Amino acid sequence: MKQRMAVAPTVAPRNLTELEPLIRERAIDILENLPVGETFNWVQEVSIELTSRMLATLFGFPYEERRKLVYWSDLATAVPEVTGDTSIDMTQRYNELMQAAAAFYQLWMERANEPPKFDLISMLIHNEETRRMNEDPELFLGTILLLIVGGNDTTRNSISGGVVALNQFPDQYQKLRDNPGLIPNMVAEIVRWQTPVIHMRRTALADIELGGKKIREGDKVVMWYLSGNRDENEFADADKLIIDRPNARGHVSFGFGVHRCMGNRLAEMQLRILWEEIMKRFHTVELVGDVERLPNNFIRGIRNVPVRLHPL
Q1: 235 lies in a domain?
Q2: Is residue 6 part of a domain?
Q3: Band of the pLDDT at 1, cuts 50, 70, 90?
Q4: Which domain range does residue 90 map to?
Q5: How many domains does the chain have?
Q6: Is residue 28 part of a domain?
Q7: Given strand 282-287, what is the order of strands in its sheet?
Q8: For position 259, what pLDDT does the model report?
Q9: Is 233 part of any domain?
Q10: Range with the poorest average pLDDT among 109-113, 158-162, 308-312
Q11: Span 96-128, pLDDT tens digits
């Protein structure tokens, strides 16, 4: 594999529009340095690499340490209730998450003495509602981890899931080759088909009847995004990837209403740009082995996607 430069941008982006050329630059760098004709793990070399680069930029985090963000993101959801792994050392997990808190606290204090910038830490510091967030350790770490997981797992697993889906439905891959203009709609369909966040759980605050079912105060209520995205009343042939599906954007992977994911446009932009650049270079990203998924009932994660590239 070629040596990848992965240098940080010399000029930080100042708004969302300026992120597009930066994403494209990084996507091109990643794709141009992949080993054509050799088997490699798409998750490590593309999905994680692109999202970690962008996460570092979004947080203003040291670029050369960007893989720490991926590690902390994985650690955040690594609890027995989610993974089923009762051997997890929760004390070690806690200590390592405290390292994450310390790193971001240091970053916070540095940003506090600087003019406002276009990164999430700076935005939080210079917002009246959140500028004292660092004074509450639990709120501080919880918010940071929420942003890391939201920016990492969703995009990363949609990038991986897209390759899996197109190999599972080769007629759709051919449809994409025939009409690359379908990429924006395909991105929405990939996010629907993959559904990177499986569910969210809430606790009912009062007795209520919903859909003919009684929910009592204190009951645990689970919103299954995965089920909603497979609703046959909404999506015909819901288990299939159909890249020109007319209502693909009707998925609920980003949530709904006032709590809709604030990073959805950035996630879609990364996926769109990556696939635009993939289609300029490769006839097929061929799946050549078994897909290894993460044991996790919250994040629909993928650990290994063995592929081989076939150039145009």
Answers
A1: no
A2: no
A3: low
A4: 16-188+240-311
A5: 1
A6: yes
A7: 40-41, 306-311, 282-287
A8: 80
A9: no
A10: 109-113
A11: 999 999 999 999 999 999 999 889 999 999 999
The helix-helix angle for 264-281 and 16-32 (nearest 10°) equals 40
Where does the pLDDT of residue 17 fall: very low under 50, low under 70, confident under 90, or very high at 90 and above?
confident
What are the backbone angles phi and psi of residue 8, rounded to the nearest 5°?
-75, 150
| Low-confidence winner among 16-25, 157-166, 192-201 (lowest mean pLDDT) | 16-25
User: Residue 135 belongs to a domain with what CATH number?
Assistant: 1.10.630.10
| Tokens 């597009």 sit on residue | 20
Assigned token pair, 34: 């992949």
Cα 54 to chain centroid distance, Å, stands at 11
pLDDT classification of 12: cutoffs 50, 70, 90: low
Closest C-alpha among 273, 251, 261, 258 to residue 188: 251
Reported pTM: 0.91
What's the sign of the alpha-carbon dihedral 74, 77, 82, 87? positive
Q: Quick one: pLDDT band at residue 231, thresholds 50, 70, 90?
A: very high
- Burial readout 74-107 (b: 16 or more C-beta within 10 A, e: otherwise): bbbbbeeebbeeeeeeeeeeeeebeebbebbeeb
